[in-house]
Design a protein that fits this description.
This protein has 759 residues and is of the alpha/beta class. It is 46% helix and 17% strand.
Length: 759
């Protein structure tokens, strides 16, 4: 009898699945009915309240990144719609939005953080259930139901509301609530202006190439669970087959890459992963929506995991979900889509390895995230391509092939620009190209001012691909070769032999010109993929650069050996970064000399000439004992770091990083003191950093006594052009007079003087 009853009576779970599917089906029909955005929202709140048997259903959407707005309600006062707002974290709704986790309580007014909003009339409702409306970690809003009766909502009710919230997130992303159907149809067609931040200077015109195109789940609701599960299983089998094929093909030589694929295979064969997605389909989701729901849950777990190794493994599952979504939808770059001509890469973020794979094919890069010191910014500078960072929501708006203009000088992006905007932008690019053509005629000429003072102009580099610029730009040498890029783009520590071969190719490509190799400068904003991140409150002033090298001598010793073997009898110049006190330089210098002695005993060829220098990036080093200046073979001012520490203005903080002028009297006076100390010790001094490549700043540095400047290759032409047109002796007199007058910055006086020169 019991068995017979099991066969004829639906289980509670089956009934709940049917109710969930019924709600989703009604929701889909409501969304499919032609209507304006507000009308859709009103219908949805009525539908959810009716289906869940609650007196209230409300939808709050983000008005801006920190403000939620009541956009529709069933049960609260209608006049509160578009009037009631709250900040992220404020009240129970704000708590749901901030934590991305549901709040379920039978007595909302007594809940910690409850905020009473009299204009809504919600004081009569005790029960509260709020769930986040989010898509793959992007917060879009909060969905709330409320009842008068004091009760907690069941797990099944919470689950049902989460599923509905997910469908709403998809439709919000697709623009279902921004206007009527005609407005929706116009999405991704109109011109859009994005204001981000400057990551790398330059301007370009091209076509969008999405690094990881957003997979559009056009129908998050499934009609037939069995059909959807069959689609899911077929896609999972396809995924497993592709991973197995990559592993079996023997093409993966890198052990770290093989480990990643092994993790992929483990997850792809996880029965629990598949089972959870099948359960979501039984509740009414399509196969694609089920994958996304599990992916969102994974991302939420990732944020809570403190262990970096486990976080990486969960990231593998996130990547695997993206692959599965592309198989299910047929969308994405790995489905045969061809990269357009003049591609401009658009992405939420990107690692240095992926960016280097694209290489110089790219005309520019636009990121939703990133920072001026991020790995992507470092590589973009090395590739000399314009970069705009923090262009919010551009990956949602942009489509592959869309025309795009990138202004790295202003941090502005024009997507699908109007003809007049595109024409003006092309004029700007043409003027820049014409200027570069003029500068090319100066390539073989020295940077000698009209007063006879000569300034050495060198270039910064970090990749083999940079070296052709050594001749093309007219640089006299490489004033800074960033060795950390070779560590950043790998999943493991490079081998000594690999580094020796690379450094040897760099010296060979330099063809006898001086190359200054800066030893590994990691930490702060440059964390190696295989290095455990340090939990530091202020990493820019923490365990980084030479501090890591001295505390982990094995890695530094290996790099020094690679540099010595690469020289193979040629001159070698080594520079240690972020020296804060003389003892650090002496210790690092001795470590290099010890390796020289070890190489001599082994019988390896020693450098014909060895120069050992330091980067002056902290104000403290300017006051080091005289013995430091006498011992160092050369000193290079690291302008980017020195400026941020001098003014106590974090260069990663947009509120302050442009607040202080490089031509401030106090900063120039400080540079003058450094010049004087190096002059007394007969120690060559150079300036390396972004400001060295800005013609007016470079001119002032040279006038202050700096006779060597190192910059990106594209800046050498304009800097040389300006130096050759003026007298540095006369400019120094202008600077001294401005300083004596008590002004904050010498810039106005310098610009006024330049306006009178024949430049």
């Amino acid at each position: 009898m019991e068995a017979a009853r099991d066969q004829t009576t639906p289980s509670v779970s089956d009934r709940e699945d049917r109710e969930s599917r019924k709600l989703l089906s009604r929701l889909r029909d409501t969304l499919a009915t032609p209507a304006k955005g507000q009308e859709r929202l009103d219908r949805i709140t009525h539908l959810i309240a009716d289906s869940m048997g609650t007196e209230v259903c409300s939808i709050y959407l983000f008005r801006d990144p920190t403000t939620l707005e009541l956009c529709a309600t069933e049960g609260l006062k209608p006049e509160a719609v578009h009037q009631t707002r709250m900040k992220l974290g404020e009240g129970l709704v704000g708590r749901v939005a901030k934590t991305s986790t549901p709040v379920n309580t039978g007595d909302a007014p007594s809940e910690k953080g409850f905020r009473y909003m009299p204009e809504t009339g919600e004081e009569i409702f005790s029960s509260f259930l709020g769930v986040p409306i989010q898509r793959l970690g992007e917060k879009l809003g909060v969905l709330v139901v409320q009842s008068k009766a004091k009760r907690q909502f069941s797990d099944d009710e919470v689950y049902a509301l989460e599923v509905v919230a997910m469908v709403l997130a998809e439709m919000t992303e697709l623009g279902a609530f921004v206007g009527d159907d005609e407005a929706m149809a116009a999405l991704h067609k109109h011109p859009v202006l994005f204001r981000g931040l400057m990551g790398q200077e330059g301007a370009c015109e091209g076509r969008v190439w999405l690094h990881e195109p957003r997979v559009v789940v056009a129908n998050p609701v499934g009609d037939d669970p069995e059909t959807e599960k069959a689609r899911l299983n077929a896609a999972v089998e396809d995924l497993r087959g592709s991973v197995d094929a990559m592993l079996a093909g023997g093409e993966i030589a890198d052990k770290a890459q093989q480990e990643i694929l092994e993790a992929y295979r483990m997850f792809a064969n996880s029965r629990g992963w598949l089972k959870r997605m099948e359960e979501d389909i039984d509740r009414g989701l399509s196969a694609e929506a089920a994958v996304e729901k599990e992916q969102s849950a994974t991302r939420a777990r990732m944020e809570q995991v403190p262990d970096p190794y486990l976080r990486e493994r969960m990231q593998d599952l996130d990547d695997l979900s993206n692959r599965l979504l592309r198989i299910l939808t047929g969308q994405g770059n790995d489905t045969g889509a061809e990269m357009p001509e003049n591609p401009v890469l658009v992405a939420r973020n990107i690692g240095p390895g992926d960016l280097l794979e694209y290489g110089r094919k790219l005309k520019g890069v636009v990121l939703e995230e990133g920072s001026v010191g991020s790995h992507a910014a470092v590589v973009a500078r090395a590739l000399v391509i314009p970069l705009v960072i923090q262009a919010s929501r551009i990956t949602t708006e942009a489509l592959n092939g869309d025309p795009i203009l990138v202004d790295g000088d202003q941090g502005v992006v024009h997507l699908r620009p109007e003809d007049s905007v595109a024409a003006a932008f092309r004029d700007k690019i043409a003027m820049a190209a014409a200027a570069q053509t003029r500068y090319a005629s100066l390539r073989e000429l020295p940077a000698v001012a009209t007063c006879g003072t000569r300034v050495g102009l060198h270039m910064n580099a970090g990749l083999m691909a940079d070296l052709p610029s050594l001749k093309g730009s007219g640089a006299e040498g490489v004033g800074l070769f960033r060795t950390e890029l070779q560590f950043l783009i790998r999943n493991r520590v490079p081998q000594r032999g690999e580094l020796a071969q690379l450094y040897a190719r760099v010296l060979q490509a330099a063809d006898g010109k001086r190359v200054v190799f800066r030893t590994l400068d990691i930490g702060s904003d440059k964390v190696l993929p295989y290095m455990k991140p340090q939990d530091e409150p202020n990493p820019a002033m923490g365990w980084r650069a030479i501090r890591v090298g001295l505390d982990k001598p094995g890695v530094m010793r290996m790099q020094l050996q690679a540099l010595l073997r690469a020289a193979a009898g040629r001159p070698l110049t080594v520079m240690f970064p972020f020296i804060a006190q003389a003892s650090e330089f002496f210790e690092a210098r001795q470590a290099l000399l010890d390796e020289v002695e070890r190489e001599r005993k082994i019988g390896h060829a020693l450098p014909f000439k060895l120069e050992i220098g330091a980067m002056l990036e902290t104000p403290s080093l300017a006051f080091a004992p005289k013995s430091f200046f006498e011992t160092a073979d050369f000193i290079s001012i690291g302008g980017n770091d020195l400026k941020q520490f001098f003014f106590a203005a974090d260069r990663e903080n947009e509120r302050v990083r442009r607040r202080y002028d490089t031509l401030d009297v106090s900063f120039l006076s400080f540079l003058g003191q450094i010049v004087e100390r190096c002059h007394e010790a007969h120690t060559p001094l150079s300036f390396c950093g972004e400001d060295a490549g800005r013609p007016v700043e470079a001119l002032c540095f040279a006038a202050m006594g700096l006779r060597t400047l190192s910059m990106r290759p594209a800046s050498i032409g304009p800097v040389k052009h300006l130096i050759r047109k003026v007298s540095l002796r006369d400019l120094r007199a202008v600077i001294d007079e401005a300083m004596a007058s008590g002004v904050q910055s010498v810039r106005p006086a310098v610009m006024e003087w330049l306006a009178r020169q024949p430049v």
